[in-house]
Amino acid sequence: MKKFLTGLIIGIIMATALSVSASSNSVTIFVNDTEINSDKAYISDEGITMIPLRAVVETLGLTVNWDGTTKTIYISSPEQPKETRQPLTLEEVTKLILPAVVKLESGGMPIGTGFFVSSDGKVITNVHVIEGYNNITAVLQDGKRLKADLLKVKKDWDLCLLKVSGSNYPYIGNFNYEYDTFDTCYYFPYGLDYPVAKGQVRAFIDQPINEKFKFIYYSGPITRGSSGGPVINEYGELIGVNYRAYGYTAVFAIASEYVAKMLE
Known about the structure:
Layout: H1 2-16, E1 18-19, E2 29-31, E3 34-36, E4 42-43, E5 48-50, H2 53-59, E6 63-67, E7 72-76, H3 90-97, E8 101-106, E9 109-116, E10 122-125, H4 127-130, E11 136-139, E12 145-154, E13 159-163, E14 184-187, E15 197-209, E16 211-219, E17 230-233, E18 238-246, E19 250-255, H5 256-262
Helix pairs in contact: 1-2
């Protein structure tokens, strides 16, 4: 719908009248960085250019139909594919994702959470979780303890990449960047009696921090030490990384696209 309205509004504005020099021999037209075929533009002797509505909206991927009988223009956006997958239950998310989640410690003291993003031992967590600590240990779900070395840091995103030795680790490899397509999320509150909790996605926010930065706001019970843990949608895909909480229920997660960038 947003794409449809954008195309309609831009099309009407451009089709109204844009003043240009009468001596102009050509017109270059861009909509959302996409060039429109300027052969479709009409320039009058008075220097007025008219851009057909069809030229604009079809460039935006919309469909234009004309009913000559009723003299009506119909503009429509492509139908979005319907989700055919079945949402996972809490138990299914626990079985699928929990093995990839690790607790992070330093000197035997818990400092936060992380999770495997590759079978060869790469772990994502927050920079603020490991900052100031020299010896980091990843504690697996079976209690195994592994030394974690720092591979990559991106402070602007509050993300870092760690590495433990070994292979064949369960990991989270499916990401979802379409943040407006789901309402339910699952996450991993540190130290609570239940290892996986269900939350409600409330908002998606773009915030400029040196560059545009996206994060997710959701609600659910949270505890200190949950930073760096994964946030999963109802299809078992990573949508974010916990990085900040206000009180015990308001949580912010860094969008999963930044995790993908950390792996590039």
